[in-house]
Amino acid sequence: MKPIWERRRKIDEIDEKLVELLNQRAALAIEIGNFKRRNNQSPVSPDREREIVRRACQTSAGPLDPEAIARLFRAILEESRRAAAEATDLAISEGILR
Question: For the segment 33-51, what is each residue's pLDDT rounded down to a tens digit?
Fold first, then answer.
C-alpha cells in the first residue's frame, strides 16, 4: 500500500490540473459571452447548460454519483457565467464592448 503522502501528492497534482482546466474553461466562457454580447444574444443558454450537466453525469464512471457530478457542474457553470459577466462589464466600462 502506498504511503499517504504519495496519495496526497497525487491529489495536489490533480488539483493543479483541475485549476488549469477550469481557468481554460472560464476563458472560453468569457470569449463566448463577448460574442453573445456583440451579437445581441442572451448570455444564458439553459438548454446548453442542461446538456452539459446531463453529459457530465452520463460520462462519469464514479465513484462520484450523478447527483454529485451535477452539483459540481452547476457550480462550474455558475462561476463561468459570473466570470463572463464580470469580463463583459469590464470591457464595457473600458469601451472595448458596447
Answer: 889 888 999 888 999 999 9
- Distance from C-alpha of 33 to C-alpha of 24, rounded to nearest angstrom: 14
Grid cell 453525469 — which residue?
57
Walk me through the domains of the chain, giving residue ranges and CATH numbers.
4-93 (1.20.59.10)
Distance (Å, whole) CA 71 – CA 64:
11
Q: What share of the chain is helix, strand, coil (3-state, %, to 5)?
A: 80, 0, 20
Q: Report whether 25 contacts 80 (CB < 8 A).
A: yes
pTM of whole model > 0.85? no
Look-up of cell digits 462550474 = 76
In angstroms, the CA 45 to CA 49 distance is 6
